Amino acid sequence: MMTRFICLMLVTAVGVTTSKAQEFEGNDKETDQEFIYMNRYKRSSDTQDKCTYTFIVPQQRVTGAICVNSKEPEVLLENRVNKQELQLLNNELLKQKRQIETLQQLVEVDGGIVNEVKLLRKESRNMNSRVTQLYMQLLHEIIRKRDNALELSQLENKILNQTADMLQLASKYKDLEHKYQHLMSIANNQSMIIAQLEEHCQRMPSIKPLPQTPQPPHKVYQPPTYNRINNQISTNEIQSDQNLKVLPPTLPTMPAVTSIPTSTDKPSGPWRDCLQALEDGHDTSSIYLVKPENTNQLMQVWCDQRHDPGGWTVIQRRLDGSVNFFRNWETYKQGFGNIDGEYWLGLENIYWLTNQGNYKLLITMEDWSGRKVFAEYASFRLEPESEYYKLRLGRYNGNAGDSFTWHNGKQFTTLDRDHDVYTGNCAHYQKGGWWYNACAHSNLNGVWYRGGHYRSRYQDGVYWAEFRGGSYSLKKVVMMIRPNPNTFH
What is the CATH classification number for the domain harbouring 342? Predict the structure, then answer.
């Protein structure tokens, strides 16, 4: 580095010398001209009689030593030249010094930048390794959350299964409680009947039993169908007391009573339907014993004799949510619930009722604000079980809106028997049994929610889409049928 600096200084000195020589070039020219002029003047005065010749020689650039004026002392000239050269050298040295300082500053700055670049590269490597670690941690977290989601779904399924089992047990307990209450009421009724018979016998002391009274007519009141009923009782929850209601005609003391009719006696059934019971003078809404035509099937139904014009056979009722309607196929076939409360008459019973003549369907509904509407269909019947109790509906009339015709011609579907047209099982989503299409405009056998509007993953409430929509669970619903002779299948 020092060698390069010395060489640079020498080159600079040579350049300065050359420039200095160029500066003195003008002064030399003036001195030469004066010298030539003086010589020419002297010669012309001395030699006036002689011929003279003047030669003009072109001036050459001085490239060698510097010529100085002979008039000035050489020492002064040398001192002046040396001072000027020294001044120039000092200026050049200062300039070179400033350039060297600038170069040093640049070198220092470049070194700092290099160090910063090295630090940035190191930090970049560290950041890359950190990003890799974070990415691996993220993958582990994703895998762990996926495992947790699977465990959570398994727990939810277990909870749902246990909840379903608990609901089934609760419904069975309620059904057993209702059966017990029914049996108690029937036992009380039987006690009252016995007391009435004893009182009636005491009023007729003059009539004596004939020798032939205990004869075969008593066997007429015990047909083989009673055994069928007794077998049916074990599987049908709402008909647990049918055989007990049939027993009074089999009492051995009845012939004396039946042989003396009075003006106040009314037929005690069984009847074809509730309209026949009304025509026989039973105008009180209560439980009646019904035996449809073309079958030996006996059933207990609730007859609504108050709703104009009376004679309505109730096949379904929802009013307080006390009965679970999320049942299997066999339960919906036989029927369930409490006849004087919430109940379903049974698909088989509805089939026998609606196929003995022309029947119309009336559906009454009430929301939680007390508004009541109805939907009436001119004809209503079910196909047999071989057709999965396919629905047949007639013309609509009413103020509730028609949300049932869309289900016309559809088969009945339960959780264990999927007969709807949807790819899945509508009963699973609607939480009930119904003539589902894909899936429902009405779901009167759904979950009874209190308050109307409900929150659920699916539309599974007791709803009628044309009346308050699918997200509103109705407060009361009654489905009932009545003969309609003006309508034909």
Answer: 3.90.215.10
The candidate with the shortest Cα–Cα distance to 257, out of 340, 300, 311, 198, is 198
Instruction: Kindly state whether residue 174 falls inside one of the protein's structural domains.
Output: no
The number of distinct structural domains making up the chain is 2
Residue 269 confidence (pLDDT): 74
- Domain of residue 21 covers 2-43+62-125
Q: What is the pLDDT of residue 8?
A: 55
Q: State the Cα torsion 7-12-17-18 to the nearest 10°.
A: 110
Spell out, as residue ranges, where the chain has pLDDT lower than 50: 14, 16-28, 30-31, 34-45, 47, 206-264, 489
Please give the structure tokens belonging to residue 64.
Answer: 């060698």
Dihedral of alpha carbons 391, 395, 398, 403, sign:
positive
CB 230 within 8 A of CB 250: no
Report pLDDT for 190: 77
**What pLDDT was estimated at residue 425?**
93
Chosen domain end from 102, 125, 148: 125
Within a domain: 241: no
**pTM value > 0.70:** no
* Residue 86 within any structural domain of the chain: yes
Q: Which of 237, 230, 317, 307 is nearest to 274 (CA)?
A: 307
